[in-house]
Write a structure and sequence with these properties.
By secondary structure, the chain is mainly β. The chain contains 3 helices and 22 strands. Strands 1, 3, 5, 7, 8, 10, 11, 13, 14, 16, 17, 19 and 20 form a 13-stranded parallel β-sheet that branches. It has a 9-stranded mixed β-sheet with strand order 2-4-6-9-12-15-18-21-22. A hairpin with a 4-residue loop joins strand 21 and strand 22.
Length: about 220
């Protein structure tokens, strides 16, 4: 709680420019130009880099010894949690090999009320969207050592999707709401669905025909 007290106070500063300045000065965070950090968003992490023009909405929490990198023009909505316990930095957990890294690519989107358990690496590729709400990303569990979650570029992840530790998907996929990803789905240009997740069909022709539109103008 002590590690979050100062970030909490900064998050309650009423002006965006002042919040950004305080996060830079007090924590050494590297924050680009034109960045917006919403009121009530608490950032208490090991390190933070935010690219130019990125926007983080209100009431998000970034907590723990996480190295956070947010690409230029990425967007994060509200009420998202990016969590790792500070206890893992103690000698007791050294053998577990935790590598808490959160990397959101350029023009990526994380919408609302998603949960990210960041004890391993969570990577979301350029232009990929974590859309809707209520998706969960888990990187640790009982005896889990293969933790990283890697999501390629230009993917659309629907609501209430679950990613288990050590999972990945390729590029330019649509992941249907409620999907449970339990392994590495190497497919690209596909509709991914099911429990466990698998590529159901190609969407390459649909994309070429302009059926799917990915634009921040719609958000």
């Amino acid at each position: 709680m002590k590690r979050l007290l100062l970030p909490l106070l900064v998050s309650l500063v009423p002006l965006n420019a002042l919040r950004v300045t305080l996060y830079r000065l007090l924590f050494g965070y590297r924050i680009g130009t034109g960045v917006r950090i919403g009121f009530g968003t608490v950032i208490g992490v090991e390190s933070l880099e935010i690219g130019d023009g990125a926007a983080i909405g209100p009431l998000n929490v970034f907590k723990g010894p996480i190295q956070v990198r947010i690409g230029a023009r990425a967007r994060i909505g509200r009420l998202n949690q990016f969590f790792c316990s500070w206890h893992i930095v103690s000698d007791k957990f050294a053998a577990r090999g935790y590598t808490p890294v959160l990397e959101l690519g350029e023009r990526s989107l994380v919408l609302n009320s998603h949960f990210f358990d960041v004890y391993g690496r969570v990577e979301i590729g350029n232009d990929s969207w974590i859309a809707g709400n209520g998706s969960q990303f888990w990187t640790h569990g009982l005896s889990v050592m293969d933790r990283d979650i890697i999501i390629g570029e230009k993917n659309y992840i629907g609501s209430a999707v679950r990613f288990a530790p050590g999972t990945s998907i390729g590029h330019r996929n649509i992941v249907a709401l409620g999907t449970v990803v339990l392994g590495r789905v190497e497919a690209s240009d596909s509709l991914i669905s099911g429990f466990p997740a698998k590529a159901v069909r190609s969407i390459a022709e649909d994309v070429q025909a302009g059926r799917y539109r990915f634009s921040f103008e719609d958000w």
